[in-house]
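One example copied in:
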Amino acid sequence: MCCMLTSLFFLGPRVAILVWWLIDSARWEAAFDNFWLAFIGFLLAPWTTLMYVIVFRGGVTGFDWVWMALALIIDISSYTGGAYGNRERWGYAGA
């Protein structure tokens, strides 16, 4: 199970969310009150959604907020990382 879960994370967070939801939907129902909140997380912030389900078992407290912040940083960097990589193409590389 651990190797399968790890390979799903390498395929991408959305594939991991989909397969994990199919295998263990009770955990997802416990973490999210309604389907739409989980679906919006699936579309906009998949790493944060995965981390929320991982740390939710006892509630998000203490050091869990650090994990949530790291997942949010990964989500934000996945949206903004391409701009930094293409800065030379658009002439913004500086001198």
